[in-house]
Amino acid sequence: MKFIYPAVFRKTEEGRYKSYFPDLERCYGEGDTLDDAIDDSNEAARNWLSLELTEEDPFIPYVSDEEDIELKEGEFIRNISVNIRFYEGWDE
């Protein structure tokens, strides 16, 4: 199953990149470069979604429209795509 969620990125004063997902509560990423931060954000979203899918009553949030996300100065959005494969017996 493929999930695509927008992540909000910003460059810190130290030159690193940090991100958060408006739709995934307490899901963050960071890295020394934008590519590193995107990779870390992808892993964070995958972990968040995988954990939620193990719950008895999983809640997969709706995806925000990028136009509805309020950005602060210097922030920008990148869509993060996460592929999760379900195997036979995955929910046992």
Please provide a written account of the structure.
The chain is α+β, with helices and mostly antiparallel strands. It has one domain (2-69): 2-Layer Sandwich (Double Stranded RNA Binding Domain). 23% of the residues lie in helices and 28% in strands. It has one helix and four strands; from the N terminus they run E-E-E-H-E. The protein has one helix spanning 34-54, and strands spanning 2-11, 17-20, 28-31, 76-83. It has a four-stranded antiparallel beta sheet, with helices on one face. The mean pLDDT is 92.
Overall tally of domains = 1
Q: Helix amount, in percent?
A: 10-25%
Write down the Rg. Answer: 14 Å
Report the CATH C-level class.
Alpha Beta
N/C terminus separation: 18 Å
CATH architecture: 2-Layer Sandwich
Apparent shape: globular
Mean pLDDT: 92
Order of helices and strands: EEEHE
CATH topology title = Double Stranded RNA Binding Domain
Which structural class do you get from the secondary structure elements?
A: alpha+beta
Short description:
The protein has one helix and four strands; from the N terminus they run βββαβ.
Helix and strand layout, with pairings?
Elements: E1 2-11, E2 17-20, E3 28-31, H1 34-54, E4 76-83
Feature tags:
92 residues, alpha+beta, 1 helix, Double Stranded RNA Binding Domain, 4-stranded antiparallel β-sheet, 4 strands, 23% helix, single chain
